[in-house]
Amino acid sequence: MNLTVFGATGGIGQEIVRQALGAGHRVTAVVRDPARLAVGGDGVEVFRSDLGDAESVRAAVAGRDAVLSGLGARSRKDAGVAARLTRTVLAAMEAEGVRRLLLVSAGPVGPAPKGEGAVDRAARGLVSALLKDVYADLRQLEAEVARSATEWTVVRPPRLQDKPLTGTYRTVLGGFPPRGRFIARADVAHAMLRMTDDPATVKQGVGVAY
Q: SS3 for the chain, per residue?
């Protein structure tokens, strides 16, 4: 497939690029600073953009089979960036008639797991309070994506870890895995690539965790 990856220098974004290239896909990596992209090779095209407007990134999505986004706040002070930059992506995709879109959100933004215990419920409440502005940004992102004409999938992981790919994790359509507390960024990327051509995940929020 021909894929475009936004947020390609982030932890999940770089893993998407690396794994996609390893699987034989061609990748357009959209970055602000090409020097921060640690992944290269014959199958990758680096597209420099600060996502200031949709017109500037139309060429990055034109003719692609799917767009995958790891855009999001790196800290609480960046809250608002996910929804704002995703609006640019959505507008560019609409202008070029590209439909398939996969994005990263967060577990606490979606529904609570079925049978959630008191400890996990308390932890979810604490994290949601600490990252209130970040999660408000992601809820806005999800709302705007849901209103779009794209064939979207929102992937909702719990706490992220910088650990090696396992390829073994749980996913729940429209929900979240019970007692799912951690997942490696590499496995989030793996899940997103697996879902790219999975019609069951279209217009779904998908919880993913160990």
A: CEEEEECCCCHHHHHHHHHHHHCCCEEEEEECCHHHCCCCCCCEEEEECCCCCHHHHHHHHCCCCEEEECCCCCCHHHCCHHHHHHHHHHHHHHHHCCCEEEEECCHHHCCCCCCCCHHHHHHHHHHHHHCHHHHHHHHHHHHHHHHCCCEEEEEECCEEECCCCCCCCEEEECCCCCCCCEEEHHHHHHHHHHHCCCHHHCCEEEEEEC
* Identity at 95, one-letter amino acid code: A
Q: What is the pLDDT of residues 58-93, one digit of tens each?
A: 999 999 999 999 998 666 666 678 999 999 999 999
Length of the chain: 210
The alpha carbon of residue 94 and the mean position of all alpha carbons in its chain are separated, in whole angstroms, by 18
Structure tokens, 191: 């899940």
Domains of the chain: 2-209 (3.40.50.720)
In one-letter notation, the amino acid at residue 86 is T
Query: Quick check: pTM over 0.90?
Result: yes
